[in-house]
Amino acid sequence: MSDPKTVLIVEDEKNIVDILRFNLQRAGYQTLEAYDGEDGLAQAVSANPDLILLDVMLPKKNGFDVCRALRDQGSSVPVIILTAREEEADKVLGLEIGADDYITKPFSMRELVARVKAQLRRYTRYNGTDKAESDVIDFNGLVIDRSTHQCTLYDKELNLTPLEFDILWMLCENRGHVISAERLFETVWGEKYLDRNNTVMVHIRRLREKLERVPAEPAYIITKWGVGYYFAGEDQPTI
Prior knowledge:
It is a single chain. The protein has 239 residues and is α/β, with parallel strands linked by helices. Helix content is 39%, strand content 19%. It has helices at residues 14-26, 37-47, 63-72, 88-96, 109-126, 162-173, 181-188, 199-211, and strands spanning 6-10, 30-34, 51-55, 79-83, 101-104, 136-139, 142-145, 150-153, 156-157, 221-224, 228-231. The protein has a five-stranded parallel β-sheet, sandwiched between helices. The longest helix has 18 residues, at 109-126.
């Protein structure tokens, strides 16, 4: 039997921490708690949790800065942003700086636990601690190995998050065919796509920044306006 996964809760409201701790432990997870951003970042580095629930409005260091610092250090630990903010720009910012998902307060515990489970499944698969089908896509200098979740472009390793890897795999597996944002979201995230959901767009943008030589003029991941995205895979190295 595998060891229980550890979730770090970074939230300054004690009543919310207590509710999250109770429900996560009831679902079989271990928990750590931090009540400000600086302690949250320190525990994220020292304790190496399997997932982080990260509030935005925190004392000492806000959640955006904590997430940005983790990604700058090369950490790919799943981060779910917890926010009471309704502004679309804040949700986009969280995704752009490296968060894997966001959930807006108030939220149901059932929904939150389901999202935690989904992110942990993806991360476990990404790190090779779960059995994965041994498939390799190799063309035009790009090599994607789904069994090891490694990706290289002209022998240069791409540092992809688990979500970015899954998006790239799906596009490459269907290369030459346009995949709608709805299909990408429902396949990769495993949730129903809602109108005005720009989560896919933000992750495509982040993926292009790692893959493309000129992200604003993509040669690999192409947008078919009004339809979706497709992987062209022209022979162009990344610099």
